[in-house]
Amino acid sequence: MTFWTMGSLGGAMWEPVLVCLSIILPSMWFLTKKARELNILLLGEENAAYIGVDTHKLKRTIILTSALCVGAAVAVSGIIGFIGLVVPHLIRLLFGADHKLLIPASALLGAALLLLADTIARTLVAPSELPVGVLTSLVGGPFFLWLLIKQNSSGN
Amino acid sequence: MLKAENLNFSIGEKTILDRVSLEIKQGEIFAILGPNGAGKSTLMKCLSGYEKPTRGNITLMGQAFASFSLTDLAAIRAVLTQSVSINFPFTALEVAAMGRGQFSGVGQDMRDYDIAREAMQLTEVSHLEERLISTLSGGEQQRVHMARILAQLWDQTDCILFLDEPTSALDLKHQFMLFDICRTLASQKNFAVVVILHDLQLAKRMTDQALLLDAGKIFAVGASADVINIDTVSTLYDINRSQVML
């Protein structure tokens, strides 16, 4: 339980991975299908409606699907902060804001980053191991602040 | 093409529109004029289907407004709002191509980008297509969004365009460019163009019909050349007759 609240991949087994995947993969496919409507939504709800996007329906389905995704992941890994917060912003900086790329790229880079963090967490204080959530918060917090300040100063 | 009868719009106790009736015909440029807060933008939102009037009827092509779905509407009317701010790194071309949302659903095919490019050529922003929208000037952004609106109704005829202060950030040359585009659409593709303006000289010269709105009521309506005159303008805007320049 303590490891769950701090976030850890220590209890990884194939069974929860498969259960998790069976929820996350279809959700991701669905979200990527909505990429174009999500792009248009960034014009604002009024303008999106003029182009024919049903914004209320879109918001409802997106929130439901992402909640499903997040729920499945957090249920098995515990609370691992900042990866989900930082990665999409990073992708936007690197490749632009098109959701068609943003959604799958965030999933891939997020997974890669978590794997890296987990490897470091396991080797840093070997033979014992650090919960990976502690490490991501330690690194991710300041990084997110830097991102926030940078975007604020370049945005206006 | 678009007919409104006795439109009322109120928020709580405040009446924004009071018994406004009008008819907009195909092939005509229709100006909505009036002082700040007269209800011009609200009237446009009602006419374009975003807000539902508290009372009154609107018919589009003879059919009640409620019978059109969002996608039906998107194929026959496009709207340029006063300002659109995008804080995300999209290129000008990507923004213009967003106008093609309702047609091809998921995949943004090459044809949509081609149309967006052609529309950008019309509004003279082709050279900016790779630039991020946030790095463009106000007038350039306005022209990119104009291209997005044009792309939305590309290849269509008998449509209706709503433009809310489309010239607010444009230099003189591009103001004329905008009205050239509107005039061409009106005469060759049978579009109706509804435009909110503050420049009365421009309205008098460039539009066919004008509706003058004062505190939510119709102050005057008719042919632009007649209805925009020293008498109406000085009374409507509460200024001296000597200050009016038309």
Task: Please outline what is shown here.
The complex is a heterodimer of chains A (156) and B (246). Chain A has 156 residues and is an all-alpha fold.
How would you describe this protein?
The complex is a heterodimer of chains A (156) and B (246). Helix content of chain A is 79%, strand content 0%. Chain A is mostly helical. In chain A, helix 2 (14-33) runs antiparallel to helix 5 (55-77), helix 6 packs across helix 7 (99-124) and helix 6 (83-95) packs across helix 8. The mean pLDDT of chain A is 88. Chain B is an alpha/beta fold and 246 residues long. Chain B has ten helices and ten strands. In chain B, the strands form two sheets. Chain B has a six-stranded mixed beta sheet, with helices on both faces. Chain B has a four-stranded antiparallel beta sheet with strand order 2-1-4-5, covered by helices on one side. In chain B, a hairpin with a 2-residue loop joins strand 9 (209-214) and strand 10. In chain B, helix 3 packs across helix 5 and helix 5 packs across helix 6 (138-152). The chains are: A mainly alpha (156), B alpha/beta (246). The interface between A and B is medium-sized, with 24 and 31 residues.
The tally of beta strands of chain B, per DSSP, is 10
Low-confidence stretches of chain A: none
Please indicate the count of domains of chain A.
2
Determine the mean pLDDT of chain B: 92
Keywords:
heterodimer, A: 156 residues, mainly alpha, 8 helices, 0% strand, globular, B: 246 residues, alpha/beta, Rossmann fold, four-stranded antiparallel sheet, 10 strands
Topology:
The complex is a heterodimer of chains A (156) and B (246).
Chain A: H1 2-6, H2 14-33, H3 35-41, H4 45-50, H5 55-77, H6 83-95, H7 99-124, H8 132-155
Helix pairs in contact in A: 2-5, 2-7, 3-7, 6-7, 6-8
Chain B: E1 2-11, E2 14-24, E3 29-33, H1 40-47, E4 55-60, E5 63-64, H2 70-76, E6 77-80, H3 92-98, H4 101-104, H5 110-122, H6 138-152, E7 160-164, H7 172-188, E8 192-196, H8 200-206, E9 209-214, E10 217-223, H9 224-227, H10 230-236
Parallel strand pairs in B: 3-8, 3-9, 6-7, 7-8
Antiparallel strand pairs in B: 1-2, 1-4, 4-5, 9-10
